[in-house]
Amino acid sequence: MKNVLARFSKKESLMLQLLYNDLARRSDKGNIDKDVFAKVFYLPGVLGERLFMYFDMNKTQLIDFECFLTAIASYCKETIENKNKVIFEICDSKDDLVLDAKEMNIIVSLLGHEILQNPDIGLDVPVKPIRTKKRSKTVVKISTTLNEDQVSHNQVESFIKGILTFTQFQEFLKTAPNFVKVFDKCFNQEIWCNDLELTMTQAPMLSSLNSQISGELYMKIEEKLVSKYAILRNKVLLLYENTNCKQPGEVIYMEGCYMEIIGDYYISNKFGISITHQNLSFGEIMLWSDSRKERDDWLRFLENASNYRKFKEFYTIGEKIGHGKFSDVYSCTENSTYKKWAVKVITKSKLSSLEKELIQSEISILRVLNHPGVIKIKDIFDSKKHLLIVMELVEGGELFDRLVKKKVLSEYSASKIIKQLLEATSYLHDFCIVHRDIKPENILLTDSSDIPTIKLADFGLSKFAGPNDTQNLACGTLGYVAPEVLIQSGYNCKVDIWSIGVITYLLLRGRLPFDHKEKQILIDLTLKANLSFEEPYWKSFTPFAIDFMIKCIKRDPEERLCSQDALKHQWIKNADVLIPRAIDRKKMQEMNIERGVSSTNFGKVQYREVHIDIDLSTGISYDVRSMPELRGEDCVVEVMS
């Protein structure tokens, strides 16, 4: 620890200690947790996950002070070569000591094409291919709706002729200084490496342009008001004993904090502001000023530094259109454009610590996604009691509801819908995201046509995971969840392909391949039952459909299709040629799919959600919800296996 501290000046060490103390008190564990870390040391997507892993040297999901200092020193107090090595390790999502074009395209898509811009140096940098490893030179295109992404894609192609070793990556960084600046910024040197003496010699200022304010405030200490000199700078509130003091006594990082006005004259002739955090361990910090105007100025700047905004100033809420376990969904109208959106209103008091973590993960994922087949997030409003997520309004209902009405779809329609689902899933997997809960309820439709445009939604159980990472958390929905999730043997993105195979079966057959009203029997069927297509019903379909389902619903994930291979399957790729587009009325009657006719028990036993018990020693906790007539009252039963 002493060796690490020696790399910082006394002022830097003090600022880092104060910053760490402030961030650590936002967690019940007394160290910096992942959620708090991501707000301060931000990188998007899987890069943020790997940055946290870089800090979390003890692999505890918490960062202690020694790890905090060591990680910062290993980047900020090192040579350019060692700094570049840290960047390389964070970008190397496969941990194979090289970067290929696919990894680089992901990085550029996450960070923005601006990181490749350098007006002084040409784009085409010759990089000698490495031939010691067999690796495809094909650049996997990441589908987005932005034209600039294709430009970035082409630039990456010109940079990378094969794969990049660390030495070649250093040469690449010389051509892209903006790339390094992104990583420099996330280490927040402007916070802890300020020239504090310069700060203190500046006259108190009030500027909405740089969101900076300074002046005298008061704190209550042992029933007495004690004067402090306060400076708000770079989202950090610095509290000094007086104007002559060159070192702050307390540091408060404002993002994630909530401000409220303390009742006027709560203390005689003083006007107060209360600063709190959603985690009660943060406590409450109360500051007073001499006038109401000063208090209001401080409140405005503190709210701005914390990124606090009021929903009603930007949107007008409409009617309720849905609800969940701890949230309600409403339509809303954007005040400036009159465009319709949906807003999910989450009540924080109803959330467990794990549910809070999952919601933050969902937000982190939605922020980086931009694909026509994935629901888009528009805005986020975080208040003390509620979290409001504004997203695109999709008015065609769920695929689940479509199945309730039609029972099954034509083979051609099913293929086209599954193709869209695979394109969205492949996009997620390219960004190292596993959805983990793909099911008809989470597939939204934009219209009522036979082949509607779909939107994959509800990323509450989704997870950033590198190409070589395995997950162990048991989550998903029974009937759709893959066997390796149930036995907790470790799983990867191929669990999503299992779910897509199950949905394909459901679209064509009107029931799940493995289904039973008893939870344990359903689990056993998922783990052991053979998938059969021997019944006469399946003779109405092409052999390509059967082959596709067999290859997706493989119990061994190694034998299961990946998303890219699934898109290349004949049933998906050549549907226009191989699949009949019409079914005559007589055949529809034979298949028993006329409206109102069903030979299945669809709905009563297929809607069964798996919720999570983080203590794996007690088994998986299941929240079983039966829906009689598809719209009956929920019946909640908890069963431990």
Number of helices: 24
Helical percentage: 25-40%
Compute the CA-based radius of gyration. 28 Å
The tally of structural domains comes to: 4
Beta-strand residue fraction: 15-25%
Poorly predicted segments? 121-148, 196-211, 592-641
By CATH reckoning, the class of the largest domain would read Mainly Alpha
Instruction: Tell me which CATH architecture of the largest domain applies here.
Output: Orthogonal Bundle
User: What is the averaged pLDDT score?
Assistant: 82
From the 3D structure, determine the CATH topology of the largest domain.
Transferase(Phosphotransferase), domain 1
Outline: globular
Indicate the structural class.
Answer: alpha+beta
In CATH terms, the superfamily of the largest domain is: Transferase(Phosphotransferase) domain 1
Q: CA-to-CA gap between the ends?
A: 46 Å
Multimeric status of the protein: single chain
How many β-strands, per DSSP? 25
What composes the largest sheet?
A: 8 strands, antiparallel
Cofactor: Mg(2+)
InterPro entries: EF-hand-dom_pair, Kinase-like_dom_sf, PH-like_dom_sf, PH_domain, Prot_kinase_dom, Protein_kinase_ATP_BS, Ser/Thr_kinase_AS
Family: Belongs to the protein kinase superfamily. Ser/Thr protein kinase family. CDPK subfamily.
Protein name: non-specific serine/threonine protein kinase
